[in-house]
């Protein structure tokens, strides 16, 4: 597709289960970002990939959160032993190259809504 | 640390009127960028406008303009001639030069009425 694709769009899970969220960036985009949006809040940065490496993962809230990117394309965000506070919309974005301060050209997907019961 | 404050949880405006969405920021950095994003009900974030900290002129993009007052650390978004399709959440964000992380405010919900 033309845009950033995320799956699943909705995920309901039980506390303690592991979940995987997938992001398929725009073809050719080298930079990929994960953000989290809790109810009524702004977006919270989680991790940034350049190619397959993650130079900045400072936003991952705990070691239950991990992410990988393979082939410079698809990325998976994994949350282990989910907790109720993990409930949020997880947004993925990509850009053609690392976003310079002079551009704001991040292209976002529609997000994966995670609900932990 | 960087912080963005949006004090208006909701704003109402009539179609064809102008509206200003407030944004103040806090940073000790000298070089940074300020951004506004629109989030319609579909959930995706749409980039609207950018202002660099060293830009002397206010940024404009079509009906969007950014009222940048550096000394007051404010970066208000002005939407002229509002349209029904402008109804959405609007987020102000900033990024320190050389870094990839965007810091977002909590957003303002804009409702445009006929």
Largest sheet of chain B: 6 strands, mixed
Query: What percentage of residues of chain B falls in helices of 4 or more residues?
Result: under 10%
**Ranges of chain B with pLDDT <50 over ≥5 residues?**
none
- The helix count of chain A comes to 0
Q: Helical proportion of chain A?
A: under 10%
Share of β-strand residues of chain A: over 45%
- Largest sheet features of chain A: 7 strands, mixed
Radius of gyration of chain A over alpha carbons? Answer: 13 Å
Number of helices of chain B: 0
- Specify the overall morphology of chain A: globular
Describe this structure in words.
The complex is a heterodimer of chains A (117) and B (114). Chain A contains no helices and eleven strands. Chain A is mostly beta strands and 117 residues long. In chain A, strands 2, 4, 5, 6, 9, 10 and 11 form a seven-stranded mixed β-sheet that branches. A four-stranded antiparallel β-sheet of chain A has the order 1-3-8-7, with no helix packed on it. In chain A, a hairpin with a 2-residue loop joins strand 5 and strand 6 (53-56). The termini of chain A are far apart. The model of chain A has no long low-confidence stretch (mean pLDDT 90). Chain B has 114 residues and is mainly beta. The radius of gyration of chain B is 14 Å and the shape is globular. The model of chain B has no long low-confidence stretch (mean pLDDT 94).
List the helices and strands and how they pair.
The complex is a heterodimer of chains A (117) and B (114).
Chain A: E1 5-7, E2 10-13, E3 19-24, E4 31-37, E5 43-50, E6 53-56, E7 65-69, E8 75-79, E9 88-95, E10 107-108, E11 112-116
Parallel strand pairs in A: 2-11
Antiparallel strand pairs in A: 1-3, 3-8, 4-5, 4-9, 5-6, 7-8, 9-10, 9-11
Chain B: E1 3-5, E2 10-14, E3 19-21, E4 24-26, E5 32-39, E6 46-52, E7 60-61, E8 64-69, E9 74-79, E10 88-96, E11 103-104, E12 108-113
Parallel strand pairs in B: 2-12
Antiparallel strand pairs in B: 1-4, 3-9, 5-6, 5-10, 7-8, 8-9, 10-11, 10-12
